[in-house]
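Exercise: predict the structure of this protein bound to zinc ion.
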Amino acid sequence: MAVQSEQNSAAEHDTLRRFIFEQLPVQGRHVHLDASWRAIQQHQDYPQPVRRLLGEALAAAALLSATLKYEGTLSLQIRGGGPVHLLVVQCTSGLHLRGLAHWHGELAEDAGFRQLVGDGQLALTIEQTRQVERYQGIVALEGDSLAASLEGYFARSEQLPTRLWLHAGDGPATGFLLQTVPGRDPAADAWQHVTVLADTLKPAELGTLSAQELLHRLYHEDDVRLFGAAPVAFRCQCSRARIETTLRALGEAEVRDILRELGKVHVDCEFCGRGYDFDKVDVEGLFAPAPMATTPGQLH
Ligand SMILES: [Zn+2]
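Solution:
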């Protein structure tokens, strides 16, 4: 068999695996989200088409997180003009995922990508933990799938030929990515060879095959090296300090109004459902003037 694997693929749940073509300047990744994906759905009762889109977006974020060269977070955000007006997914360099979607109105069971998001924008943001500046690329949503929109993004902003295949149904959310190796343009026919084969993947295959089975199904005539599985998990990065920053941004008047009306300010993290309470003393602390820097007294 031409697919060389570093490990057995028997138990391949919540994993990200990288692979390379030995004879072509093409690399790829496969992701399988199971328990992590179910955990993310526990905090919201998403209608079926929104759930599919969110699952696909999470698979995409995990696939693209490999572009993080240092410790940090990759965010994929859709601001849609359709019923799904906001979708945010994030994946850290440690492969911790979280995500949510906002929608309104009734949605047809089989609503497609364009019906869900309408016209809108897709933003990819990369924040590195130890750096202040962040990188953000924004493109218009195009094509009739999230994968097509992301491919358009890469064609425009990265000039790095990239193709994605995403799948999320009732079971796991899965994804498959092919990308040229930076600085080594493959011959057009080589890129066509690998992508045309991947285009024969059926959604059911993408949803059920392990990385090794999938690579064998597509590329048994090529030499492919499949690397070991990295675990992917749901984990929220919310904290009291982050909620405090949000409340300060909301403004003192607004926060004091809520306090007056309800006796406390309660904030639920939308990603994980965790609740944070701020009583009168906490709110005083939030908006207390920062202590003045003490300047040495002048001698008279
Ligand atoms: Zn949270």
